[in-house]
Amino acid sequence: MKHSIDEQSWTRFAADYGLGHNPFRSCSRVWRDLIVHSWQIWMIFKSGFTATFRQTVFGQLWGVIMPLVPLFAFFILTLLRIFPAHESIPPLSYMAVGVTLWLYLQGLMVAPAEAVTKHASVLKSSDFPMVCVFMASYGRLAFEMLIRILVVAPILVFFYEISLAGLALVPLLLLPASAFGIAFGIFLGLGGIVVQDLKNVMEIILRYLIFISFAIFPLSMSGVGGWFYSLNPLAIYIDNIRNVLITGHLATPGHFYVVSLISIVLLVLALHLYSVLERRVAGAL
Amino acid sequence: MPAERQHNILEVKGINKRFCHNIPAKRRQLIRQFSMAMLGKPDDSEALAPGEFWALDNVSFSLKRGEALGLIGLNGAGKSTLLSIIARQLLPDRGVVRSRGQIAAMINLTAGFEESLTGRENIFLKGALLGRSRAQVLQKFDEIVEFAEIGDFLDSPVATYSSGMRMRLAFSIAVHTDPDLLLIDEVLSVGDFRFRQKCLRKLNELRSHASFIFVSHSFQDIARFCTRLIVLDKGNLVFDGSTQEGIKFYIGNKAGGDGRHPISADSSSLSIGSAPIALMEPFIDQQAAITSVSFRWFSPDGNPISTVRQGREIKAELRFKPLGGADRVAIGLPIWSMDGVMVTSVNSDTSEIEIESNAEGWVVLQMQFDSLDLNPGTYFPVLSIGKNTELIYRQPVAPLQVSESYSMTWGVFTPRVRWTQCGEEVSAVLSAED
Question: Nearest CB to B30: which of A17, A50, A194?
Fold first, then answer.
């Protein structure tokens, strides 16, 4: 029931908006926005998905085909034995799991910036929370991930290279990895509004980072390869999650725990930064 | 809570907003805001950095429940910025906005439409983007469709809609809500005349239970809806008072003053003068093509006047020196009413006059209005002089006050009508036609 105006409390909107919050209060505000707007997020995801392929001949089939294109491209290159092989994991399994994880993490990082660009007119002319359009774009990403899993799973099963215990652990291990991707995505989404070059720089980096992220083929852990591994959280996540799925144990537990901890902290900071900056950057869209 | 605040629904106090003239300045501003926010401080300095300007400067007012506030000003005065801040879309750089209840903003109505989705799908999408729940959209769905008059197009992609249909749908989605405060930014230019009337009716309905802030360039709409008017000039609030006084103030001071100091609604300070009205623009004065332009109203006995009784004869004299000769010169005199409507226009092209200059190069013309049937009020002519296809002069001239009336008047002019009682001969004619 709607309260009379006299019973309603005042809402304050001022230059210090969001500045007095601590990071945990910011996180709880973001969480509340997501819960309150869950139907709106679903509508944006559904509408975006429907609209993308509506005017094509194959319609929604493209929604299934498109996520598989990069996977099949690497599938063919792997069959042609262009890439070096891992000592114990068959190349196809190595690549299939690695590329699926890479595309997921890469998607988490670039989706917010793309969502901001796509929904700029709405974000500029309404008080709709920016994080809801981020989340709607992650919905699309989750769908694409699901499609890839449906293709990758039979490959793994065919080669009997799957650990049931590891399979149960994968969703848990994906949490810190997702935290890293989301945190990075929020930084990039907000930063891209201020300095648009950031988006271009990241696009270039992410296009080639896959080759040193242990996603398609392994690198030697000695020398430069070791550095690539230690300094690249994506490599650590991909290598460890794949290892758990196939062998049942982490490849580099020390690296994984450190990166996971950093990822959680980054996510809290990113959500706090978002909470502080959201209204400040909306006017710049 | 103080008694005077009890009925307030909105309080705007000392609002400032900085904008930038160019992209590099905007980038610097954003980086500075980023850095300050990271340190937990607002970027609320009083000084402007290079390339910045105040889009709003120390704007304060409050709004009571049930009040309808009009907001007028020239383009760039800060009207939309102020509305965006009240709608919580833009953060102020300084100052505070306090509000109570639900605020709905009718700003940039078609933003968020997906072209390839149908009207039906877009109603849900746009409803979601306006923050409404599924239940709220479902509850209003039929009303939205009926109001938008999109009929069979409901299940067609919005890309196939005409711009009018798109605006009607967007307006319908936005207006079917139940806010405590409705912000309307120049959105009444929707569809054809009939639909516009329908929109106004709908807004009138909402008016009974919601407060309004209404931005418009139409004085008619402002006068129809608003009980109070705020005039913004270059980001400053320069008038806050009754609607009629506000319109007079705006007309009289469109470009006047330094715009820094609020002016009271005291009617003694109002001056219609010969100041131009924003809606009459553009104003042109090509001094390389024309000089020494003068215009005056005068009575049939030759005395200069500024007031004429309704229905009386009046004359105007016009003098100017066209520097390239008077060949292919045409003169127009559009006349505006006080509420910004162009009432009529006279043009030398529609007369048989041949405009020529005399031996000294002067063109001197007289216009005679046999019976000025404009209703009482102040009217604002704009003298327009064209040569070939180009306007070389277009400036407001002395306003004309029409006084007294035959009797009661409606609208802007009262034609002379001769009424006749139909007798038997008229009945006979009608019977013969049957």
Answer: A194
